[in-house]
Protein 1
Amino acid sequence: MIKMKHQLGVMDLYPIAANKTQIENNPFFQAKLKEPVDVERLYEAVKRSLCEYPLFACTLRYEKGYYLETNEKEFQLIRAAEENRPLVFGDATNGFLWQMCYDQYTISFEWCHAISDGRGGFAFFSTVLCHYFGVDRLVEPALELGLESFYNKAEKGIPQKKQEPGFAANALPFIKRGYRTDCHILKAPMREVLAAAKKSDSSPAAVLPPLVSMALRKHMNPKIKNKNVSCNVVIDCRDPMGFQTMHNCIISKNITYIDRYDTMDFALVSTIYRAFLDLAVQQENIVKVATETVDMIRPIVSVKPRFLQKVLAKVVAGVMKHSESNFTFTYLGRMDLPDEVMSGLADFNFRSWTDFGECNVAAIDFGGTLILNICENYQDKDIIPDLIDICNTVGIQFETVDVLTFEQANLRLTI
């Protein structure tokens, strides 16, 4: 493997600044196979995939600024069930910014966002699965930076309705548990989720956030005046912009559930959410938000010396934790994998710790089944059961597959 250096954009540098703060976030994927994991096949699959995804073959370096450099050390596969897996990677994984664990039937993968976002991480992991099952994939290494590629101060964007702020943190008491959280794994037929919106071209991103918001509102102290619920919907810029990159390439759209939505037919509320999202993904607005994001984050990730950057990042993280949004919704879309791969998989999970607010809803379409991993730290444990009941009223029959304690694994790297 040729040793290479890779520049990092602001959305790559942001997770490095957020390291060891209240908003550090390292996503988690888990594939359950129908047959026991073949470790030798998995090793070869990862080895081939690292050649095709050079950013994942890197370690982090610092010389007047952070950058990625090809890691010449050997990667490791860790034999451990999810609940017993290491909670620290980086120094413990020979400098790689990810870890992959396997058990009898499961393969788990988690990584630092400095390498890539959820779509990029899924592209790498799904390629590992393809190689594992003997399927070749054509991968073109796209290494242009993400949001910087759209930067244009002249773009004013299409006007969007300003969203009202969400509720204050004290409206729903929560438990401080470090990087631990309760995780609820729910499943429902995708057709039911889309039918709830009464539009054939709808998306879970327009259906589930208002339903989650309804459940949260139901459990707020009745004396609270502001019961608005702000949802941070993660948007992948690649498809709307006709642009490919392995670097982080996401923005977010905050949509707030307000009092008047309670009196509307749910299909109309979903249509309103869809309209907000449709406007947010217009190229003009992506360029505008990308430019604003670069301008906002660059001063933070450019602070020198590094210890001052860490001090500033902790202050910013403390403010953002409960002011950026009340919960996050991220949808990776349909698992677009060859039949040979899908036929070998029994289940799939995607989850993310609660970096903003106290709830993170991660969703993926696995063969026509919508799988939700809801991570939350609310004191009131009736919120998710009530969410399921609310979903039932609009025709979505969620099944609770599991409720477990999940702890995020974190990057700890000495450089």
Note: The mean pLDDT is 96.
Protein 2
Amino acid sequence: MGKWQQIGVVLIIFGVVTLGGSAFIYNHQMSQDGDLVWRDGNLYELHANPSVLALMTLGMIIGGICTLLGILSYFTPEEKRAQKIRPGSYYNTLQQSILQIDQRSEQLPVNFCPGCGRAVQPGATFCEGCGRRLT
């Protein structure tokens, strides 16, 4: 399991728990709204706490977003560790061009010494200036 899939699982679990818990508490608050309670010889009407309702609504929103992000990150493909050169790509074409240039330069006669840059006769084996082997 890749890094993004692990993050996705954690986000899904966190999102589902947050969403479910917030929805349960929200439902409990709303179910008691308007109920009558007999306490100490008096009849009281229960009201839902607006602060709790707002907090649970926020919890449900955050839980839903985390769940969606978790699903998206779980199904995100893993990054390719090593980029391979595809046939026909720019780098593959460039690499082939360099190989062709190298092959052509090996076939051409040496007119200049690669060591000192002095002109040499075609067919010479050594440079007259620095003594470097030319073949």
Note: The chain has a mean pLDDT of 80.
Protein 3
Amino acid sequence: MKGILVYVCKYHEVLNPVSRHIVSSYSTCSLVKRLSLDDIAFIGREYLNLLSRNFELDVTDLELVRKLIGREIGGDEYVKLVLED
């Protein structure tokens, strides 16, 4: 059975330091737990299908986030689910 890595990620917006140079924004992620597919069945078939197809899934729904990590996140955070190899 494949495991699911659960990360909390924080989005960082970068202001362009120099005109005519484009610097993209980025996210930093921290591993918070590892779960099984059975542990996350509550997220629903649609999300599970997306996870299976794309091997990762960003979750911003506050109720799902609370169920996944047991706490709330800030407005610049999200949870990333990654399907292990």
Note: The CA atoms of residues 29 and 49 lie 23 Å apart.
